[in-house]
Amino acid sequence: MTDKQKLLVVGSVALDDIETPFGRRESSLGGSAVFFSWASSLFSPSSMVGVVGEDFPERYIRDLKERGIDTKSLKTAPGKTFHWEGKYEYDLNIAHTLKTELNVFENFKPELTEEQKESKYLFLANIDPELQLEVARKMNSPEIVAMDTMNFWIENKRKELIKTLEVVDYLMINDAEARQLGESSNLIKASNNIFKMGPEVIVVKQGEYGVTVFFADGRSRKIEVFSAPSVPLENVVDPTGAGDSFAGAFMGYIAAKGSTENSVLRQAVILGSVVASYTVEGFSIDRLKDIGIKDVKDRFKYLKKISHFEDI
Amino acid sequence: MTDKQKLLVVGSVALDDIETPFGRRESSLGGSAVFFSWASSLFSPSSMVGVVGEDFPERYIRDLKERGIDTKSLKTAPGKTFHWEGKYEYDLNIAHTLKTELNVFENFKPELTEEQKESKYLFLANIDPELQLEVARKMNSPEIVAMDTMNFWIENKRKELIKTLEVVDYLMINDAEARQLGESSNLIKASNNIFKMGPEVIVVKQGEYGVTVFFADGRSRKIEVFSAPSVPLENVVDPTGAGDSFAGAFMGYIAAKGSTENSVLRQAVILGSVVASYTVEGFSIDRLKDIGIKDVKDRFKYLKKISHFEDI
Question: Is B152 on the interface with A (CB under 8 A)?
Fold first, then answer.
């Protein structure tokens, strides 16, 4: 298997209209699979499964290919591309969805090539849990299956979501959603409940407060914790794609290292925070296009510095 | 000057009725000065300025004295002790105040002994900013003046609060209150605005998400940041006193080290988080009474472990 097929992502490819206090963008390139694969490509090339409509600009596909992203399974279907319209208020913490048009995504049937089925690492971005499970089942024993989800699925497809979680190793989820899924306001208790559903690592994204990771240790029945800061930012332009960029860098680094040792996972979390911090400094993938591994290393070092304290 | 007079705190001493999902306590020992001095005494003895009523149990004074806390300026006035009644809902994040009876605190006139005026470290707990300034002005050039405040004073005595901040070195404040005081939803921008009011260090307490500290660097005009995790807790019994215990351990360690070097401040923050984590595991000062320096060191090491990541 070549390097190209190591990391597979299934998710949305979108044309978004986004308004923040810092500007407005129309028909801008978005979607979970786009942010994920653009971020992961800083470390490891990835292969994308998704669908776009006939309105999807050819130049975006070209950009993805030039970035080294495999778009063989990014299909074009009759109709319009998945479209999201959102607005962020002054504090940028809450996205108000103004419109969601599934369009070609409504009848999306993910199809994987034989090569893709052999991928070692699979990321199921935030889509319908039944679709997520369908993709996971097509795979030939991947080493790690990671997924994202959201309150909508927790509320409306809890049963299906729990079924999908059975085949998932790493769950990446927002703070409030972790408590909702784990049915406890206490994160440790919520994590213990989620561990029973299948995942052995829960990456809880806490926005500007950083990330807390819970590792299940089957033998000791104790939870191991990793607590990571976020990069303090003075100028957040558009938070869209932060979580998917985080996941992309996280999985991309794991694929590049070919290891899921605890020390590698910790570094992957920090790299996820770093890449997400760049994403939110611009609209769409604008900032991601700008940065290279040197920029990533700079902020990695910065996070090391701001979280350092000496033994007493 | 003896060691005893190095650290001075002015704040409330209270008899609280507290209800949490885990139980109910009536007339339990509370107040900012109590939590502060009990926590600080793990590292350095302190002296307390405050007032209690005639109903205040003699045994509580005895406990404080036995702990090595100087209570010479803890006056007994005719009437009842300051009384707070609060209730925490299931998620323990929000305290609902059911009743606040100032009682003897209404006419509290802080008086300092000549020895106390020579203290090197002063903590102005969360009381009326005019009272805080009055105490700060009685001092003979203390090395560090630190203070806490809350939304009530920011909203109702903003002018007086800003006047007090002029003489303050370290501000310890909740996340939402820092944004409110600094008039920006962005913490870096808010901190820059607060720096202009006087403080050079802003300790932003973020509850279970940890603590972020902003250090003003006058020369480079750049902010230095320290980001500290909190101790993940499965069993929080009563959050009352967390912030004051944090401040107590923080200031107590600084007083014990006799240093305000950046590396000492970082350790002091971690120790603040550690001691606060014990406080909330019981009502009143129950847990603080139980623990010793070994317990503190254990959780310090634990925080080191859960925040560790290797260079890439």
Answer: no
Beta-carbon separation of B189 and A234 below 8 A: yes
Decide if B229 touches A, using CB distance below 8 A: yes
Which chain A residues are Cβ-neighbours of B309 within 8 angstroms? 226, 228, 263, 266-267, 269-270, 304
Contact B266 A306 (CB under 8 A): no
Nearest chain A alpha carbon to B271 = A312
Could you give the domains of chain A?
A: 3-306 (3.40.1190.20)
The whole-angstrom distance between A86's CA and the closest CA on chain B is 20
CA–CA dist B312, B75 (Å, integer): 58
Residues 6+ apart with CB under 8 A from B280: B233, B236, B237, B238, B239, B240, B241, B242, B287
Q: pLDDT tens per residue, chain B (312 residues)?
A: 455 459 999 999 999 999 998 899 999 999 999 999 999 999 999 999 999 999 999 999 999 999 999 999 999 999 999 999 999 987 777 788 999 999 999 999 999 999 999 999 999 999 999 999 999 999 999 999 999 999 999 999 999 999 999 999 999 999 999 999 999 999 999 999 999 999 999 999 999 999 999 999 766 668 899 999 999 999 999 999 999 999 999 999 999 999 999 999 999 999 999 999 999 999 999 999 999 999 999 999 999 999 999 999
The pTM (predicted TM-score) of the whole model is 0.95
Q: Tell me what ipTM this predicted complex has.
A: 0.94
What's the rounded Cα separation, in Å, for the pair B43 and B7? 11
How many Cβ atoms sit within 10 Å of the Cβ of residue A296? 22
